[in-house]
Amino acid sequence: MVARKNENGFKVIDGFSRIVRLGEGVSQTGMLDEQAIERTLEALKICAIKLERHKPKRMRLIATQACRGARNSEEFLARVKSEIGLELEIIDQQTEAKLAVTGCGDLIEKDVMGALMFDIGGGSSELAWLDFRGGRPKANGKLASSIRSWQSLEIGVVSIAEKFGGKDVSKQKFEDMVGFVAEKLKGFKGSNKLKDMIKSHNVHLIGTSGTVTTLAGLHLGLERYDRSQVDGLMMRNDEVVDTMRVLISMSYDRRAEHQCIGSDRADLVIPGCAISEAIRREWTTDYIRVADRGLREGMLISLMDMDKRKNPNKFRPRKPQEKNNG
């Protein structure tokens, strides 16, 4: 994602995304697969072309769970640097959670006292509890300072699909997935305090991932995915449950043909729903807000804040010129 700063934040001037499944097999072998590496290198070549074209003033290039967990990640990063000329940075779990919060922070309702953000990835899923009872930061770039507790689950849509299968998923297999994730959630620090807060204060969930955006697209009945309708959508609990039920009842072929899902994610969307459902059951709020944004936007906002701190005068509004009466 390439963006230019403006008065309202930033305007995206170019972007590119491709599902490469870099973490495919890592949960079973501990190694990045050669075919997955090749797919990723091909996608990164396109990124390199765009970066060369735009020549951004600042940029940040990150790798997440697949590279954190693979024994051959350093060899992979060396290939990226030598073959493509890009130098990737492996970020830790806490940094990933903070960037996700920064990226989707402006979708957290203004009148709430807290929120639970969850980001479902391929190899890991991040959760962050934001508590605003002591005051809410004015700048979205500072929202991460309100994180009271966070957790990174070393499970994502790819690893769940590899463990349970993602093509033919019965209702019982789905419940097995949910139960597996629920066990992992028991390690969330302050879980009961968060539940107490949900009972007594206005708190909502905010999900940022292909899973929740797919559910939103299905709920809206979109024939083709439309980010403008999905990003920021509020879904009530009953709407989430009903849409998930419809999705689970779909055959793999029907999922692959659906324009809001597609063949690339047809075997991953139900494992993603299992992660989302385990979180929803554990901390039930009245609604979930859908975010079609996350790490990339978080990096952009962070880079722009850094630039603003280094060049404060550049971003101050100009004072109107006084008339010279002399």
H/E element sequence: EEHHEHHEHEEEHHHEHHEHHHEH
Number of domains: 2
Number of strands: 10
Uncertain spans: 317-326
Radius of gyration: 21 Å
Which CATH first-tier class of the largest domain would you pick?
Alpha Beta
Shape: globular
Average pLDDT = 91
Strand order across the largest sheet: 7-6-5-8-10-9
CATH topology of the largest domain: Nucleotidyltransferase, domain 5
Largest beta-sheet characterization: 6 strands, mixed
CATH-defined architecture of the largest domain: 2-Layer Sandwich
Helix content: 40-55%
Number of helices: 14
β-strand amount: 15-25%
Main structural class:
alpha/beta
Find the CATH superfamily of the largest domain: Exopolyphosphatase. Domain 2
How widely separated are the two ends? 51 Å
Give a verbal description of the structure.
With 326 residues, this protein is of the alpha/beta class. The protein has two domains: 2-91, 2-Layer Sandwich (Nucleotidyltransferase, domain 5); 93-297, Exopolyphosphatase. Domain 2 (Nucleotidyltransferase, domain 5). Helices cover 46% and strands 15% of the residues. The chain contains 14 helices and ten strands. It has helices at residues 26-29, 34-54, 65-69, 73-84, 93-104, 157-164, 171-185, 191-200, 210-220, 227-230, 237-249, 252-257, 269-282, 295-310; strands at residues 2-6, 9-14, 62-63, 89-90, 114-120, 125-131, 147-153, 203-208, 234-236, 287-291. The strands form three sheets. The protein has a six-stranded mixed β-sheet, sandwiched between helices. Strand 1 and strand 2 (9-14) form a beta hairpin. Helix 5 (93-104) crosses helix 14, helix 6 (157-164) packs across helix 13 and helix 7 (171-185) crosses helix 13 (269-282). The N and C termini lie far apart (51 Å). 39% of the residues are buried. Residues 317-326 have low confidence and may be disordered.
